[in-house]
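We emphasize that the prediction below concerns an isolated chain of 376 residues; any contacts that depend on oligomerization or on bound cofactors are therefore not represented. The input was used exactly as deposited, without trimming of termini.
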Amino acid sequence: MSASPVLQPLTRRLRALPAAGVDVALAVGVAVAGLWPFFSRTNPAGGPWHAWGVVVVLAAAGVLGWRRRFPVAVLLSGLVGAWAYDFAGNVPAQPVWYGVLIALYTVAVRSAPWPRVAALAVTVGGSLLTASSETALRSGILFVAAYAIGRVAVASRERAEWLERERLAEAARAAERERARIARDMHDILSHAVSLMVVQAEAGPVALPGDPARAEAAFDAIASAGRDAMAQLRRMLAVLKTDDGSPAPQPTLADLPLLVSGASGAGTDIAFSVSGEPGELMPDAEVAAYRITQEALTNIVKHADARHAGVRLDWQDGTLTLEITDDGRGGPATGTGGHGLIGIRERATACGAEVTAGPRPDGPGFRVRARFGARA
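Result of the prediction step, given as a token string:
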């Protein structure tokens, strides 16, 4: 498990401290705690305590400076010191050998499975063999607790590292999804604009001798399509250059009339209509509806050879049915001529919409129909 929100700042600060400084501080703290009985207790025999005890306490605390490099050796040194402490009878009793607990914690954190289990067994077993039952019980509980805390620290650190890796992986996946979305949007924008510009450019010279007004309208449509494409691309590229991660401005249903108006002309009359009481869709559904319409109109302009087309929005109980039809030569619903129909289906699936595409059942031409659910 991870540290609580209250302890997390303290944990981060402790981990940021230099390892050598932490070990020196631990050694000093253990030495002070081990020497405290020499100053707080009076020798029943009179006179000062035996110097042997001071030497053992200082030596057992000093080896903690190497606990990270040689955890098992430091633990064994601490155990030897604890057992050797009683060789001199004229020393105060030590309530807890803190250095042994810290060393055992370090073994649990840094050693391989077999060495750390063996070290725990030697520590607990030695306590049972050399101490009274009451002392052995107290020491055994402390040793097992120190070992368990070490293993919990390892599990917590591994989980934190795993969560960090997952966070970075999810950020990478999100960035990849965003790049794919932007690439798809740029494909839609450029494909639509270039198709309109090519068709209008081909129609302009044909209409110029006999219908200058129509030729002028065709060239105006070329300019409008180019300006619209450039404006949309500039918005996307501006977002890609920023560091705040804000999403690129996305089109909505309110932009459909302008889209239809820009695609009209060059021999294809495209009508736009809305029926029913307009409701509200999720933002991703509005973007999908716009892009589906854009892709369908691009296919009509490029491939359908149609004279009439229509974009109809039918609202019923907050549910939107989007239908794009034409009276052109139609074609199969497999989309073998390109990726347009595949992109339409992907857009619809991504926002939970239902889409069908194929020849019109009521006459010549092609129909794309998408149904979007109401906003929850």
